[in-house]
Amino acid sequence: MVLAAVGQLCSTNNITSNLAQCKVLVQKAVAAGAKVLFLPEASDYIASSAEQSYSLAQSEERASFVSSLQRDAKEHNIHINVGIHEVASETRLKNSLIWIDDKGTITQNYQKVHLFDVDIKDGPVLKESASVQPGQQIPRPFETPIGRVGLSICFDLRFPEMSLALRRQNAEIITYPSAFTVPTGKAHWEPLLRARAIETQSYVIAAAQAGPHNEKRRSYGHSVIINPWGEVVAKLGDEHQEPKIATADIDLDLVAKVRREMPLLRRTDLYPEI
């Protein structure tokens, strides 16, 4: 078994401050003996407008955010999975999830496929597609110190087709770094995460933003690690005063046991294979 750490912070439009929070999480993960640290969606920043977001994505501070985490990964011999923004075009961004290995190299880059367009009664109106370009592919799961990881982001959680596609390619861990709103978090966060773990018989690791990012937006928190039987094995609350981690051992023998003892034999003669 290998220890994984899931981190929680409250990103704002101050990239330097956000980097400092991430560095605290790296230190905590290293001190705990974790081999991989999972950080939330948009760890680099959460802006108060699309215009500000585009400007920040092009900034020197944003470039330094990534390069600094690359140095930390190499110095501390830890893998880091972190959500960031990247420029896609003259008007749109990418909501990206990168994997930095223990040599400090970016080895994987997933661009969020499902974008968050909602109008919540008495809550925020969010239209991610207005400023973000959707991804066009699901990267294959890849080998890591904790097992084969499949990448997805936040709103992807609501589409079981994606996690099933990753499972079919033998993913053992599926990520959901997120910045869930409070109303949707209270209603659906843990039930959806547990469902994805149970139906794919995989570990689910969901690093979450928590607390108020600006006057318009607040995130639910409750970072979590769930095992392939659907049990919560590590969990944080909605704390945002300081960055925190939770840790859990990733037991690939348990993954194999669950899949062996509860075989899911799909009737692809009756419905399409995903």
UniProtKB/TrEMBL annotation:
<protein>
    <recommendedName>
        <fullName>CN hydrolase domain-containing protein</fullName>
    </recommendedName>
</protein>
<comment type="similarity">
    <text>Belongs to the carbon-nitrogen hydrolase superfamily. NIT1/NIT2 family.</text>
</comment>
<dbReference type="GO" id="GO:0005737">
    <property type="term" value="C:cytoplasm"/>
</dbReference>
<keyword id="KW-0963">Cytoplasm</keyword>
<dbReference type="GO" id="GO:0016811">
    <property type="term" value="F:hydrolase activity, acting on carbon-nitrogen (but not peptide) bonds, in linear amides"/>
</dbReference>
<keyword id="KW-0378">Hydrolase</keyword>
<feature type="domain" description="CN hydrolase">
    <location>
        <begin position="2"/>
        <end position="252"/>
    </location>
</feature>
<dbReference type="InterPro" id="IPR003010">
    <property type="entry name" value="C-N_Hydrolase"/>
</dbReference>
<dbReference type="InterPro" id="IPR036526">
    <property type="entry name" value="C-N_Hydrolase_sf"/>
</dbReference>
<dbReference type="InterPro" id="IPR045254">
    <property type="entry name" value="Nit1/2_C-N_Hydrolase"/>
</dbReference>
<dbReference type="Pfam" id="PF00795">
    <property type="entry name" value="CN_hydrolase"/>
</dbReference>
